[in-house]
Design a protein that fits this description.
Number of strands: 15
Structural class: mainly beta
Strand order of the largest sheet: 1-2-3-4-5-6-7-8-11-12-14-15
Oligomer: single chain
Largest sheet: 12 strands, antiparallel, barrel
Distance between the termini: 40 Å
Helix content: 10-25%
Radius of gyration: 19 Å
Number of helices: 4
Length: about 280
């Protein structure tokens, strides 16, 4: 499953925070780095697939990384709102992972997620948890990112993605600006959609499980996504704006209800916003 919170962005912030302070701090004295903040997504989507009302989301997040060990923990709470409901609690996402590698060459992370849902309105709400592996080839031309995920619901879905990114760093005094043009292609199965259709029935319209089974179990291209995170770092404060454009592919449809289902998978432009604060926990 693709993260509800884009944790990759948090790791980018963390990396620049560490490098900008490397000259004034001794890494051995740092026990952990903590990043906390608030993110806003005006068009919450899952590989370009949205709920019926195209909800927005407000997401408080905390990340704790034990720098010398490479281990990290995250917790995110999701509050959704749309045209018919006020802001309400929808889900909590927890993650534990291990980061490895260097600033140049091969780097990556292994992680596991657990999801807790208040309701079944989110498109990915059938998923109970997932495990994943991220690998990156970091170089001066363009970083190459590969991801593989196994996500668990009534059945197991498998996802994979491949992407390119090129961070552009600009320093002015105590400020750091980072712009990262990014392109990603996502593929996978969609068995989770059967449970989502069953739970929601799309405004009371019954969905035939038989008509969706054949398409949801096939490994297909799911989406193309282009984004350009813009990060401003000042001391320990991070302001982030992420404009993006996602083009869903192979959206699952059902017999007699094609219009109802397909309207939840259209091309989307969005601008996600985040305000984060980072600090270090030291010995003594």
């Amino acid at each position: 499953m693709k993260h509800i919170i884009i944790l990759t962005a948090l790791f980018i912030f963390l990396g620049f925070s560490l490098s900008s302070q490397a000259q004034t701090e001794t890494p051995k004295k740092t026990i952990a780095t903590v990043i906390s903040g608030l993110s806003y997504s005006p068009k919450l989507h899952y590989y370009g697939r949205t709920d019926e009302l195209k909800s927005s989301a407000l997401m408080p997040t905390v990340l704790v990384q034990f720098d010398s060990l490479g281990l990290y923990l995250t917790g995110s709470t999701v509050f959704t709102t749309n045209t018919v409901q006020p802001l309400e609690y929808a889900a909590t996402v927890t993650e534990i992972g291990y980061k490895f590698g260097k600033k140049q060459g091969i780097a990556g992370s292994i992680y596991g997620d657990k999801f807790f849902y208040q309701n079944k309105t989110l498109v990915q709400s059938a998923l109970q948890g997932q495990v994943g592996l991220n690998l990156s080839h970091l170089n001066k031309v363009a970083n190459i990112n590969l991801t593989s995920i196994a996500a668990f619901s009534d059945k197991t879905d498998f996802f994979a993605s491949a992407g390119l990114e090129h961070p552009i760093v600009m320093r002015t005094g105590k400020s750091v600006f980072v712009v990262t043009p990014t392109a990603v292609a996502n593929a996978g199965t969609q068995s989770f959609t059967n449970t989502y259709f069953k739970n929601n029935k799309f405004l009371g319209i019954p969905i035939s499980n038989q008509s969706t089974t054949q398409t949801t179990q096939v490994f297909n291209l799911l989406s193309y996504e282009f984004s350009m995170p813009v990060v401003w770092v000042f001391n320990n404060i991070f302001l982030v704006a992420t404009p993006g454009y996602v083009m869903p592919q192979n959206v699952v449809t059902t017999s007699g209800n094609t219009e109802v289902v397909s309207r939840n998978g259209t091309n989307l432009f969005y601008v996600n916003l985040s305000l984060l604060y980072s600090f270090k926990v030291k010995k003594g």
